[in-house]
Amino acid sequence: MSDPLLSSLRIAASGLQAQSTRMRIVSENIANTQTTGKTPGSDPYQRKTVSFASELDRLTGAEMVSVRNVGRDEAPFVVEHDPGNPAADENGYVKMPNVRMLVEMADMRDANRAYEANVQVVKQAREIINMTIDLLRN
């Protein structure tokens, strides 16, 4: 059996890494909300999604979180009439990314809160370790 404080730190670190990846993907989605195809009728930016997996850490025996994969959202593209756009088809319609800002902002807020929760776990574990060291000194 490993040290419970070490386990909590490793679990929180895996959560920090996973949520950091999630925030990066959401940021990419937000940055590409208006990215259309380069040629008429071509597909625009396709929203990315993140899925997580739970895996056993053999060193600590704890369940860690990891990014299983970064996939693509299969939702249909939004079609807008914009004949002046270089990506417009012969009828003047442009495929727009399947990124919805409201969904991305909610996902970013959720990832940020999960990240902050993991930071708090690290801070608390560090404080307990420091208190233990102080007790051992006295």
Automatic annotation (TrEMBL):
What are the record's GO terms for cellular component?
bacterial-type flagellum basal body, rod
Output one GO BP term: bacterial-type flagellum-dependent swarming motility
Signal peptide annotation: none
Task: Please list the residue ranges annotated as the Flagellar basal-body/hook protein C-terminal domain.
Answer: 91-134
Task: Name the InterPro entries on file.
Answer: Flag_bb_rod_N (IPR001444), Flg_bb/hook_C_dom (IPR010930), FlgC (IPR006299)
Compartments in which it is found: Bacterial flagellum basal body
What keywords would UniProt list here?
Answer: Bacterial flagellum, Cell projection, Cilium, Flagellum
**Stretches assigned to the Flagellar basal body rod protein N-terminal domain:** 9-37
Q: Describe the subunit structure.
A: The basal body constitutes a major portion of the flagellar organelle and consists of four rings (L,P,S, and M) mounted on a central rod. The rod consists of about 26 subunits of FlgG in the distal portion, and FlgB, FlgC and FlgF are thought to build up the proximal portion of the rod with about 6 subunits each.
The record ties this protein, via NCBIfam families, to: FlgC
Family, as annotated: Belongs to the flagella basal body rod proteins family.
UniProt name for this protein: Flagellar basal-body rod protein FlgC
Species of origin reads: Aurantimonas aggregata
